[in-house]
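User: Sequence recovery, please. Input:
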C-alpha cells in the first residue's frame, strides 16, 4: 500500500477518534481565523500531493516530489506580505496554496494540477515542467537544482535598498518588501548555499541593507542521507550578521510566531535572518523513492505519527477555532476538490512539438522609455580629460571603459559588479574611474565568489536593474556556470516569459597572454557558454567593435530582456600595433555614441576569393596573415563573425558570396567549439571547399609555450596556402 494512502487513512481515523498527538498548547499572535486559513492551505497542499501520485500511476502526471510533512510553510506565507518575493524550495506547495488565498483571482488547485499534468494551460510554465511559481504571487519558478536559487535571493534583497536610491524604470519590488528563500537541511550543505549565506553575512556585517529571510526546512534527511542531529543549529545559529530563529514546523502557531518575528526583524532592521523549522518528511523523497530500503520502519512510521496535519487539527480544536468534525470536513473537501479538478486537467492540451517547447526560450520584448543618449554636460563631467583623447585611436580596454561610462550615464538602471571592479578599476583597468563616476552603489566591489557575483546580478535583474557582472577570468566562470545555465537562462523558459533576468555578463577570457598565468588566466573554450539555450555570446576583436557591440548587448538586455555574455579577449586589451611596431594598426577611435553593431552582423575586411572565417584573437592574427598571403599572390577576405551564439549563419553566408574557398580559424579547442558549428554550416549550406585550423584539445601553458597549442600568424599562412593550392 502506498504510504500516502496509509497516512491519509491514519489522519482520517485519528481525527475522527480524537487520537491526536500531544505537544505544546496553541499560543502566540496567530488569530483563529488566520489559523483556519493556514490549515485549509495545508490540507489542500496535502491532497495535491496525493493527487499527483495518483495521476502519475494513471500515466497522466509527471512529478511526485511532494510537500507532505512541510505543511508548516503555509504559516510562513501567512507571516509575510504577498508582495514579498519568494524563491521556494521544491517542497513548498503549502506556501503557494496559502499565498494563493491572499491574492484575488488565483485558483491554486486548478493551477497546480495543470502543472502536474504538464498542460499548456499551466499558468506558470505552460507545461514545460512542474514548478512552483506564479507571477501574481511574486513567486519566480524554481527548478530542482539544489540551492541554486539562494545567490539570486541575495541579489534580489540587495536590490531593494538600491532601488530606493536609484529606482529602475522596470522596478518590481516595493521599498519595504523583503525577500524570502527556502531550502532543505541537506541543501544547506551545498557549496552554493554556503556561498550565498556567507555573502549575505559578509554584506550584513558591513551594515549594507539586505532584507532577506532564509528559511531552512529541516526534515533531517536528504533523500537517504541523514542530517546529524543539531547540525543546522550548530552551523547557522551564531553566524555574524545573521539573526537566528527557530520554530517547531509541525506547530502552525509556533511557526507563525517565529516567522512573524523573523519577518518583522528583516523588514525593520534590513538585515538577513535564518528561520530554522523542524519538520518531518512523509512518503519518501518522491513517488519512486522506496524509503523502506534505507530507513528502519520505526523511523518513517514515527514521522507519520507526527503528521503536521494531526498537530494542526489538535491545535485548532484546543484553540476553539474548529471542532474535530469541522477539521475533518475541510480535509475531505480539499480531497474531493483535487479529485474533481484532476479529472478535468488531464483533458487539457499538452505540448506536442519542438516549436511549442521552445516558444518561451526567448523572453518577450518590453517597452522602454526612449533615450537620446547621455547629455553632453553629463559626459563632460564624467569623462573629464578623457574627452580630448576620444578623437585619437585607442586600445580596446580604454574604448570598453568609455562605452561602459556612456552606457551608465544613459541608463541609470545599469550596475557593474565583480571582484576588484571598483576602487582598483579591474585587473586590466577596464572599469577604472567608474567608481569615481558613479559611486559604490552602482560599481560594486564583491567578495571573491563567482556564484555570488552572478547571483547578485540575477537577483537585481528580477527588480528591474540591468546588471553587468564581471567574471575576472573565463576559467573562473566554471565553478559558477550553473547560475547562467540552471538559473538565468531557464527563468523565461519555465515562466513563459513572465519572469526575466536580463543582464550583460562581461568575461575577460581566451588565450595569448604572453607568458602570463597559464590555463587559469587563459581559457580558450567557449563550449560551456555556446550550448546554453537562449544565451547570446559576443566576442569583439578590437576597440571600436567592442564599444558598438557592448551597446547592442545592453540594448538586447534592456529592451529584449536577454541574457548576454560579452567575452573580452584579454590579450587584445592593450594591443596597439598590427603589422609592425608602432604602426598603431589595431587601435581605433571611439565610435559616436549612437553607433551599434547589430546582433548577427559580421565584419568583413577585403574581398579576395580565399575567405578566412574567424573571431577574437583569430581575427587579429588572420589580418596579419592576410598581408603575408597577399605578398604571395593570395588575396583574402577576413570575416569576423563577432557573435558566437547564436551563430550568425546568414551573415556568414552572405559574406562568402564570391568566395572560392574557406579557411576557418578558431582559437578555441577543436572539440566542442565554434569551428565545429562553422564546418557544419559550410557543409549544409555551401559547396565551397573548406578547412579549419583550431587550437589543440589542450590546456594552455605558462612561459614561452603560451601560444604553442593555438593558431598563429604563421600557421594560418601555411593552412591558407595548403587550402588554396588544393585542387
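Assistant: Recovered sequence (727 residues):
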Amino acid at each position: 500500500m502506498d504510504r500516502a494512502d496509509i497516512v491519509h487513512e491514519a489522519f482520517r481515523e485519528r481525527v475522527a477518534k480524537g487520537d491526536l498527538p500531544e505537544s505544546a498548547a496553541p499560543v502566540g499572535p496567530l488569530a483563529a481565523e488566520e489559523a483556519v486559513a493556514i490549515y485549509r492551505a495545508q490540507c489542500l497542499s496535502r491532497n495535491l500531493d496525493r493527487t499527483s501520485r495518483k495521476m502519475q500511476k494513471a500515466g497522466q502526471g509527471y512529478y511526485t516530489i511532494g510537500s507532505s510533512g512541510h505543511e508548516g510553510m503555509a504559516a510562513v506565507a501567512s507571516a509575510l506580505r504577498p508582495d514579498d518575493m519568494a524563491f521556494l524550495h521544491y517542497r513548498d506547495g503549502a506556501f503557494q496554496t496559502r499565498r494563493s488565498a491572499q491574492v484575488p483571482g488565483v485558483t491554486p488547485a486548478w493551477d497546480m494540477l495543470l502543472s502536474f499534468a504538464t498542460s499548456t494551460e499551466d499558468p506558470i510554465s505552460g507545461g514545460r515542467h512542474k514548478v512552483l511559481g506564479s507571477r501574481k504571487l511574486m513567486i519566480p519558478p524554481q527548478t530542482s537544482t539544489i540551492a541554486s536559487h539562494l545567490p539570486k535571493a541575495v541579489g534580489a534583497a540587495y536590490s531593494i535598498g538600491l532601488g530606493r536610491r536609484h529606482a529602475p524604470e522596470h522596478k518590481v519590488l516595493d521599498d519595504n518588501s523583503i525577500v524570502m528563500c527556502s531550502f532543505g537541511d541537506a541543501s544547506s550543505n551545498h557549496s552554493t548555499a554556503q556561498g550565498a549565506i556567507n555573502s549575505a553575512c559578509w554584506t550584513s556585517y558591513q551594515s549594507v541593507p539586505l532584507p532577506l529571510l532564509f528559511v531552512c526546512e529541516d526534515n533531517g534527511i536528504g533523500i537517504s542521507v541523514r542530517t546529524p542531529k543539531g547540525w543546522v543549529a550548530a552551523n547557522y545559529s551564531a553566524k555574524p550578521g545573521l539573526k537566528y530563529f527557530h520554530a517547531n514546523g509541525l506547530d502552525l502557531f509556533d511557526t507563525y510566531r517565529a516567522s512573524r518575528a523573523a519577518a518583522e526583524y528583516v523588514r525593520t532592521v534590513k538585515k538577513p535572518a535564518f528561520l530554522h523549522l523542524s519538520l518531518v518528511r512523509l512518503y519518501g523523497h518522491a513517488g519512486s523513492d522506496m524509503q523502506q530500503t534505507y530507513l528502519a520502519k520505526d523511523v518513517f512510521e514515527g514521522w507519520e505519527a507526527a503528521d503536521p496535519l494531526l498537530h494542526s487539527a489538535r491545535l485548532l480544536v484546543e484553540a476553539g477555532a474548529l471542532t474535530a468534525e469541522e477539521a475533518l470536513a475541510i480535509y475531505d473537501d480539499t480531497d474531493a476538490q483535487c479529485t474533481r479538478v484532476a479529472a478535468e486537467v488531464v483533458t487539457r492540451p499538452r505540448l506536442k512539438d519542438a516549436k511549442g517547447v521552445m516558444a518561451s526560450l526567448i523572453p518577450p520584448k518590453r517597452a522602454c522609455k526612449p533615450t537620446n543618449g547621455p547629455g553632453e554636460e553629463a559626459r563632460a563631467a564624467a569623462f573629464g580629460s578623457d574627452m580630448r583623447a576620444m578623437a585619437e585611436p585607442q586600445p580596446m580596454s580604454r574604448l570598453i571603459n568609455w562605452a561602459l561610462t556612456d552606457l551608465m550615464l544613459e541608463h541609470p538602471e545599469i550596475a557593474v559588479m565583480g571582484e576588484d571592479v571598483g576602487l582598483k578599476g579591474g585587473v586590466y583597468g577596464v572599469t577604472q574611474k567608474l567608481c569615481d563616476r558613479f559611486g559604490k552603489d552602482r560599481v560594486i566591489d564583491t567578495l571573491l565568489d563567482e556564484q555570488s557575483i552572478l547571483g547578485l546580478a540575477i537577483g537585481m535583474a528580477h527588480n528591474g536593474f540591468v546588471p553587468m557582472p564581471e567574471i575576472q577570468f573565463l576559467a573562473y566562470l566554471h565553478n559558477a556556470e550553473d547560475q547562467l545555465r540552471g538559473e538565468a537562462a531557464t527563468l523565461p523558459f519555465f515562466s513563459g516569459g513572465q519572469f526575466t533576468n536580463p543582464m550583460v555578463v562581461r568575461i575577460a577570457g581566451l588565450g595569448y597572454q604572453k607568458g602570463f598565468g597559464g590555463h587559469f588566466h587563459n581559457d580558450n573554450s567557449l563550449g560551456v557558454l555556446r550550448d546554453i539555450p537562449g544565451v547570446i555570446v559576443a566576442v569583439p576583436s578590437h576597440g571600436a567593435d567592442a564599444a558598438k557591440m557592448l551597446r547592442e548587448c545592453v540594448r538586447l538586455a534592456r529592451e529584449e530582456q536577454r541574457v548576454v555574455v560579452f567575452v573580452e579577449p584579454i590579450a587584445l586589451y592593450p594591443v596597439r600595433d598590427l603589422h609592425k611596431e608602432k604602426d598603431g594598426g589595431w587601435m581605433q577611435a571611439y565610435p559616436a555614441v549612437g553607433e551599434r553593431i547589430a546582433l548577427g552582423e559580421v565584419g568583413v575586411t577585403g574581398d579576395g576569393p580565399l575567405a578566412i572565417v574567424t573571431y577574437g584573437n583569430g581575427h587579429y592574427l588572420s589580418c596579419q596573415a592576410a598581408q603575408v598571403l597577399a605578398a604571395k599572390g593570395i588575396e583574402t577576405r577576413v570575416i569576423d563573425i563577432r557573435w558566437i551564439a547564436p551563430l550568425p549563419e546568414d551573415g556568414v553566408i552572405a559574406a562568402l558570396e564570391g568566395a572560392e574557398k574557406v579557411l576557418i580559424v578558431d582559437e578555441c579547442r577543436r572539440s566542442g567549439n565554434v569551428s565545429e558549428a562553422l564546418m557544419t554550416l559550410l557543409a549544409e549550406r555551401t559547396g565551397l571547399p573548406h578547412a579549419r585550423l583550431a587550437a589543440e584539445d589542450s590546456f594552455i601553458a605558462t612561459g614561452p609555450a603560451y601560444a604553442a597549442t593555438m593558431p598563429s600568424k604563421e600557421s594560418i599562412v601555411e593552412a591558407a596556402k595548403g587550402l588554396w593550392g588544393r585542387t
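DSSP finds 26 helices and 19 strands in the chain.
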